[in-house]
Amino acid sequence: MQNEQYFCTASTKVIDKDLEFRPLCVRIQTIESLKNNAMNGLCSIEVKICEVGPETPFFFEESGFKKIQKLKKTLVVGDKTGALELSIWEPNLNQLKCDECYQIKLVKSRLINSQIALSAVTDTSYIKIEDLGTVETIVNSSITMINTSKGRIIQISTIKEEYGCQACGNNNITKQLDCFICNMCQSRIPNTKLPTDDILKITIVNDNREEYSLTVSKAILMSLLNGLGGSDNIITDAANDENCFNSLINLMIEFKFDQDNGIISELKSITANDLQVAEINDDDISK
User: Fold this and answer.
1) What angle do CA 66, 67, 68 make, to 5 degrees?
2) Alpha-carbon distance 111 to 143, whole Å?
3) 247: how many CB neighbours lie within 10 A of its CB?
4) Burial classification of residue 131, based on how many CB atoms lie within 10 Å of its CB (0-12 exposed, 13-18 middle, 19 or more buried)
5) In the 3-class helix/strand/coil scheme, how is 127-179 assigned residue by residue?
6) pTM
7) What is the average pLDDT value for the chain, to the nearest integer?
8) Beta strand pairing call for 82-89 and 56-63
9) Are 24-128 and 146-160+194-286 in the same CATH fold?
10) What domain of life does the UniProt record list for this protein's source (predicted)?
11) Angle at 106 between CA 36 and CA 188, to 5 degrees
12) Which residue from 129, 63, 68 is spatially nearest to 101, judged by alpha carbons?
């Protein structure tokens, strides 16, 4: 570059590259892509209508003395990568037909308690397209958000069952087999907890002074002990005595955990050098 001008030389290389200038919300995405990216916003999809539910009335409060009733249908839409529920509202209730395929633009993707759902909005449009062939019809709306971090174990202890609502923070919770229900705001949270006899609380701190209070199964801790060369007697005793895991205190580890429920899925020991290298790489990326 010279005088704010670029010049081609003998060593200049020209490479073809496709550039996408359209907004993300109008690019066609697959169901799998929406889930992998934890999409929360407007998006566009090409799907087959697998199932059409009945009309359901809902009341919306327009003012302190007036309510408006609107009708809604819940559809199951799918492509070759997955299926999700789609809510549509009048006056478009009869616009989508079962077993037909559509390009649906500017539909709202929402994340609630690690569940993804689609809902039509005022700007949503529907264009009939050619048949997509065989598609997924079983809805799987759960999203697992796995985070990987590194740090040092500072405490391992037993767990006391205490639950709080993620929506309003209230502790007035009813525990059911598959979920927790807040008795104040009626929010439902999936019950993904392991039996408390098989899990422990683990506290991990990193060099950025961030502290994680997570849960981990005894099986994962025993596997970590075994990898460190723990004797068979220690591994056997650990199954019955949490104090045997105290040898892991101050151990440098890399851990993977679910950001929704705080359950660790993988633990492995690392050296202090590994942690420093990771921090240097993070600093380079931030620059």
Assistant:
1) 130
2) 9
3) 14
4) exposed
5) EECCCCCCCCCCCCCECCCEEEEEEEEEEEECCCCCCCCCCCCCCCEEECCCE
6) 0.55
7) 81
8) unpaired
9) yes
10) Eukaryota
11) 55
12) 129
Q: What is the pLDDT of residue 192?
A: 58
Q: Which residue has the higher pLDDT, 141 or 234?
A: 141
In angstroms, the Cα distances linking 230 to 30, 226, 254 are 47, 5, 19
Residue 277 confidence (pLDDT) above 60 = no
Helix, strand, coil percentages for the chain (3-state, nearest 5):
20, 40, 40
H or E element that contains 259: none
Residue 126 pLDDT > 90, yes or no?
A: yes
d(CA 231, CA 259): 33
Instruction: Enter the tokens of residue 16.
Output: 């073809």
Q: How far is CA 208 from the centre of its chain?
A: 24
**DSSP state string for 4-62:** TB----TT----------S-GGGSEE-HHHHHHTT--EEEEEEEEEEEE---EEEEEEE
Instruction: Record the tokens describing residue 5, joined without a space.
Output: 């001008």
Contact by Cβ (8 Å): 28, 129: no
Q: Structural domain boundaries of the chain?
A: 24-128, 146-160+194-286
Cα separation, 6 vs 266, whole angstroms: 50
Provide the 10 A C-beta neighbour count for residue 33. Answer: 16
Of the candidate CATH numbers 3.40.47.10, 2.160.10.10, 2.40.50.140, 3.60.110.10, the domain formed by 24-128 belongs to 2.40.50.140
- Strands, sheet with 264-269, edge to edge from the N-terminal-most edge strand: 211-217, 199-205, 146-157, 252-258, 264-269
Closest CA to 256 of 265, 248, 244: 265
pLDDT at residue 70 is higher than 80:
yes
